[in-house]
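Category: protein sequence paired with discrete backbone structure
Discipline: computational structural biology
Format: plain text, a pair of labelled lines
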Amino acid sequence: MATITTLPAPSHAGEVLLAAEDVKKYYGDDRSPVLEMVTVELRDGEFVALLGPSGSGKSTLLRILAGLMPPSEGRVLVHGERLDGPNAQVAIVFQSFALFPWLTVLDNVELGLLATDLSPAERRARAEQAIDMIGLAGYEEAFPKELSGGMKQRVGFARALVVHPEILFMDEPFSALDVLTGENLRQELLDLWAEHSIPTRAVLIVTHNIEEAVALADRILVFGANPGHIRVELKGLPQADRRAKNSAHAQLVETIYQIMTNPELDAAELVQQRSMTARGTEPKTGGSRARRYQTLPDVSIDDLTGFVQYLATVGGRGNVHELSRDLQMRADDLMALVEATDLLGLVDLQNRHVLLTPVGQRFADADLDAEKALFRQIALEQISLLRYVVRELETSPTHTLEAERVLDDLEHSFSSEEARRQFETVIDWGRYAELLSYDDSSGELRLDEEHRVPELPT
């Protein structure tokens, strides 16, 4: 049986509302296992993420907890009592919107209340309240064909919440939406949860998206496959750190990425490495030190500088949706640009608006030489990988460095493919800053002697 590592539960966790004890699930005469010895609790006040690769059995566990299918072995408990049949305390939001096309928004939402003892007037009032809470006021009489994907999923949320479930289950609820719509709906949901506006005591989301789990959850259960099992349980970030792209956020994302992409490794050891790094110590691995860097967005210097210049021409600010439209960029490409410029301190992202910072304005106003000098300064201050490369070049007697050495170091923290991409990005940025040159044929980096930095930032 797989070893499960558990970190302390959030301090606000209260009564156990729902639990699975040693749950197994298998199919067919050969008893092919889908789930193996899964034990989990969902407590009052918790937002829990069940994170894992596709096909690992996450959705199967969700359906067992909802009472939509029985476990083959083990049991599910609701307030300590064994569950037999559908769980009346749970409502589910699915990936597919599953709306009835011949019903209006109001009728689709009200559908969840037909089996209750509420009068028609009470059903109507509660449905209208749920529609307003989820941001659909004004669309009560619209039909699903008139709605965007994001609006359809809002109807799904309203239909689930209108019954005032004790527990809300969400099965990949944002995966069918475009990036910006999903991010917006995800943030609105988190705000409603933080403000205690949702009439539910706990939330469980199934997802394969690491960033989504880190942004939402108080606890993260990382699932392994073949058969499905919980590899590790992690405490989520404080609310204030879930939106910020700070070191704690990056560290948790990276740790989960390492766990999910290395199913053969001991998850407990990776969690221990995260804990040691957070305390400012380095884990020993064969006598060498594992280095850790920010993940650099895949953004070229041309795009990065052009984006800052464009923001300056439109008054130093822009709405993310409008920028995507005006620049004719895919949402994920735009968000990579925003992340890169935010990382460098050139912009701030606030409530879906990108704002040029004073440093960003100086950058936009500068001539080419001044622009490069400013970029050189802020890149060395903000980008740990670039700082490492330049420091290694400075300390080398020949002021040169083999690319393979940098790549080998990066592969302590990234996959081989991602390490190569990180290397190419830092070379692009370092060349523009006139900090280094790179000969692809020889695989050699060389320090730019003309623009040497007397004292590197620590």
